[in-house]
Amino acid sequence: MNTIGKIFTFTSFGESHGKAIGGIIDGCPPGIVIDEGYIQSELNRRRPGQSSISTPRKEDDKVEFLSGIFEGRSAGTPIAFVIWNTNQHSDDYNHLKDVYRPSHADYTYQQKYGIRDHRGGGRSSARETAGRVVAGAIAKLVLKESGVSIHAYTSQVGHIAMTQDVEDIDLSQIESNAIRCPQSDVAEKMIRYIEELKAEGDSIGGVISCVATGIPTGWGEPVFDKLQARLAQAMLSINAAHGFDYGKGFGGVSLKGSEMNDAFMSTDGKISTKTNHSGGIQGGISNGGDIFFRVLFKPVASISKKQQSVDIHSNNVELEVRGRHDPCVLGRAAPVVEAMTAITLLDLYLHSKTYR
Amino acid sequence: MNTIGKIFTFTSFGESHGKAIGGIIDGCPPGIVIDEGYIQSELNRRRPGQSSISTPRKEDDKVEFLSGIFEGRSAGTPIAFVIWNTNQHSDDYNHLKDVYRPSHADYTYQQKYGIRDHRGGGRSSARETAGRVVAGAIAKLVLKESGVSIHAYTSQVGHIAMTQDVEDIDLSQIESNAIRCPQSDVAEKMIRYIEELKAEGDSIGGVISCVATGIPTGWGEPVFDKLQARLAQAMLSINAAHGFDYGKGFGGVSLKGSEMNDAFMSTDGKISTKTNHSGGIQGGISNGGDIFFRVLFKPVASISKKQQSVDIHSNNVELEVRGRHDPCVLGRAAPVVEAMTAITLLDLYLHSKTYR
Amino acid sequence: MNTIGKIFTFTSFGESHGKAIGGIIDGCPPGIVIDEGYIQSELNRRRPGQSSISTPRKEDDKVEFLSGIFEGRSAGTPIAFVIWNTNQHSDDYNHLKDVYRPSHADYTYQQKYGIRDHRGGGRSSARETAGRVVAGAIAKLVLKESGVSIHAYTSQVGHIAMTQDVEDIDLSQIESNAIRCPQSDVAEKMIRYIEELKAEGDSIGGVISCVATGIPTGWGEPVFDKLQARLAQAMLSINAAHGFDYGKGFGGVSLKGSEMNDAFMSTDGKISTKTNHSGGIQGGISNGGDIFFRVLFKPVASISKKQQSVDIHSNNVELEVRGRHDPCVLGRAAPVVEAMTAITLLDLYLHSKTYR
Amino acid sequence: MNTIGKIFTFTSFGESHGKAIGGIIDGCPPGIVIDEGYIQSELNRRRPGQSSISTPRKEDDKVEFLSGIFEGRSAGTPIAFVIWNTNQHSDDYNHLKDVYRPSHADYTYQQKYGIRDHRGGGRSSARETAGRVVAGAIAKLVLKESGVSIHAYTSQVGHIAMTQDVEDIDLSQIESNAIRCPQSDVAEKMIRYIEELKAEGDSIGGVISCVATGIPTGWGEPVFDKLQARLAQAMLSINAAHGFDYGKGFGGVSLKGSEMNDAFMSTDGKISTKTNHSGGIQGGISNGGDIFFRVLFKPVASISKKQQSVDIHSNNVELEVRGRHDPCVLGRAAPVVEAMTAITLLDLYLHSKTYR
User: Fold this and answer.
1) Which domain CATH number covers C35?
2) Domains in chain C: how many in total?
3) Is the pTM of this model over 0.95?
4) For a pLDDT cut of 90, what percent of chain B falls above it?
């Protein structure tokens, strides 16, 4: 369904070629200064058409708030917003009306609902994530008051991976390039590789890493709403996300318990861990360390190479997908990962307040 | 919190050294034959003390149903059950009362709740998962009527990984060894490695793979309750789970779109895909193919090697954890992965019925 | 919070003097013909300015759908809509900025949220119910396909009550007068009484009765989501609603068990009850009879008579509320009662499908 | 379904003639002293066999806690409990196996679930409410720390109603008689009337009134989880409950706005209302005054008088219900009303903490 969260909730709506996308944020604490300029700037980070490696589609993606804000502050009531669809080329999709694109949601939507908006993927379009960025920006504004900050970056594109450890990364460099990789030499290689694939009409996936700092102990609700469980749901709900791990993750599968365990230490009466192989979470609850996790994204399914497929009458067909597509979504996915992180963390933060 | 699901729900309770663990299953369709022998056999698969590589703790783990079953069938009312705690050696944990074990939930529970049952990990003990196996067994009984079957197996222990592809695996071999790896030569290596680590007082993690067959198109509720999102939450809610991926997963990160996409084909009017790199899910909805995913487990945090830690008064201490622990939980985790899969799939199956 | 329902859900937003009100409907079965003309006609029934006994405020209340509808049918995706606020006289409320109106939500909103949109009651305005009427109209369209129809009417205004029994009522007469009372002589008395009170600057409440027909056995989810429990929540969530009863209700408090019980009878193998004192519900589940219940509404709190109150600085003040208010909301509340009934019934209907 | 609440939740299980009834309380704040003696005393207030006007069934109703309590305090983890069924005369119900009792849930359960535990009403038995009393007692223990107290009493039995206003009632007299009516002369009349009906084999209903004091402003979550909406759901979920109103209620239907409105006044800077016709709630949020509401109960459906009914083969039959039944449940329903009030208020109280 289209609502996420229990206390701070976000309900999303919209198809890519309908009138608008948007959503309703409920449970936002009242009195928060809603900085619309900041929210728009977050939305701009996700916007298509930013560089040579993203789709040439121009979308304005202007957010318009309809409710829940009074004299610049959150009123404690639902915050509804819309982003109007203004640059839709629906005719680009006429040739797809009767065909199921491979590894798209065309077929499953048709099977599930018996009806499907074929224009631009309809509801299954990644355009839907723009609404999440708005909700996430508001969650970030609330979390910032508690000293929490969240940064996501591209750590791998295809076979090209960052070599820096998370501890050594200069987060301020994330916005310095189109792929949002803070290690500039690797970023260059990534971009070059993506441009090559674009020329071939192909696409590539990769990994977004995310680090959240400033989180106190106590966020996360065992046993089913553990912090990592809720993050995993949030991340895997993003279009094209195919995997999630936290702390050492799959890369640490060979470590023994004696190597993986994070020893505690006490310094001037303050408890912390010597290492952070657990990614800031123990038993489903934040332990005061940095939260660290990764999200795997598959390559964009829209490629211009010829593909074998079927049409709605179950005929085998050859398909060439036209339209304006990203060869790699990683750079634009980073703000979405941040947004879903913020939405999840804020919900668990508010939940933790019910215990005190 | 301790309830999972929206229509078919499971609420879990219990600490490892309290009177009992158990739970309440709500929303189970009525009229299902509740085969208690089968449920107990599932529980036995998770039970400790089964082999040389698991803890020598003997726990009877007999399930006792209290409600919701009438003349051998589900009545449509809540099914409550208990598993009594009978073999608890609570005194084994006296030396841990004032110490936080590294990479356990001791510290975070104390910080979150201000109170903590230190005996056997209390609520954070993996013993809690026994209740999930009971709920999962009931979900499996319901799903079986629709032709769904679910098999989880150990595909990797530390650096030792299966070499067979998922398509080539003989699922009937899963139960043939203690680590539940269907490739017998690899299983032997895994077991030998675990015995070595046990002798050293160390532990190891690995990967459980899971395949679910017989699922029709249409299960999964975009955009936030996508099938993979709900599976990810369910899996990451299991103790020690650190990662999740589906289809090609992290191992396929280098694949281009043209390699990753699953081409459609039509055979005698029936649509399927030539490959299944997507693990049976497109756009958050089952596509009729086999569901395939992996779950990463970190090494058991309880090791008998000496570790540095702190006590509740913030003093630095050296710690030797006594007690009866598994050097590797993978074999016993497989039934838990199956159970959480069944619980998740059934909930989404029932949800899909509301559309017809 | 601002979402109601579990499977068919409605999330409401909007303040009376903000940009718009509206909402998101999720879980609507796909393929339903969304008859926008019908939906607008339902909205028109609730619209102010319809007659001498309602507020002279003119509000266009045009619904604009933003998503979830494709080629005239529900797509199974969220249906978002807005109703723009176009006739707001926000300056009318300037004199209320610093004063708490008696028996309004001004004081409690200020206390709860620490911030409050004073213009037209903000979020607590009955204008919010327009969105419910839209969601209810869509629920009615779905229910109509199953043969369910819902009619609410004014059965009492102040001391003036209908004398007809529910069985004798001609439901087709409901729309024949401004107060929506199907007994025309009583309706006339009600209207005359309301006009008198309007002249005095006073207001009056009363009772809406509602009957839903065509409901099969089996809707309602004991023990906490019993049909009557969910109806009660839905009704008491309407502005100014102060009471709910079903079947014989408070009026039957003197009946003995032998008088109250609905004897069963079998006619040609079909089971029904001789009487329907239970209002079509037994044990929280529909029994195949007509659902019948009543909703009490208090008098409109906005009166133009002088009242004693306090301001935000805790000074005692005298208050004269200006603005354009209804002396009696009953006629306009009937469509809202119908809408909330439809939303509730559809959610429980869809839930009942998960058992089959 | 069988879970109520969002943050403080209670999940109920059990049939009257199964092994046990009970439940799981989740979200209870940690560190609360769980006074088991007090909880048992609350349960004793609901227990059958207390007096000449209740059923002669003896049920021990001893609560046994299974989890969530450590060293006498709530641990922040789920609190599970059972009440074993020990005095069940299941054979008393053999003659009802094939017959639907009028105004019972036999028929609707059979229709909904296709299966039904006929013994003692199974899941639809009022015995299920014993579990609610346990959960309510724990909620009361939490609320007591915030100065909240809750008292329910019988204000009407059939045509016999209290004449005292709520303001004049001596709440300490509630427990002084079997019907739990604090006006002793009226209580005597009620009891005499019930004894007469018992002799006739008949039954009677009535009204429970409830007052909750010490509640600060700010509890209640508009627009759908308004305080009165959540109370209404909770109350109508109780067996045999047929109505709910708050403040002046149905009795005040003739009041004009000028009579109904609660004028504000400020005394030494403290704001309160001169009257409390609104029952302590404005706009769905507590206003600092006493919460006051009423719950209507229909007469017990089990009467020993001969009744017309049908059997499961759709034959018309004459029925005489044997067994041990209450002629009037009001006295025993009062603790259940208190319990559901406490469960509801605590959930909303905890929710209100997320704003601060």
Assistant:
1) 3.60.150.10
2) 1
3) yes
4) 87
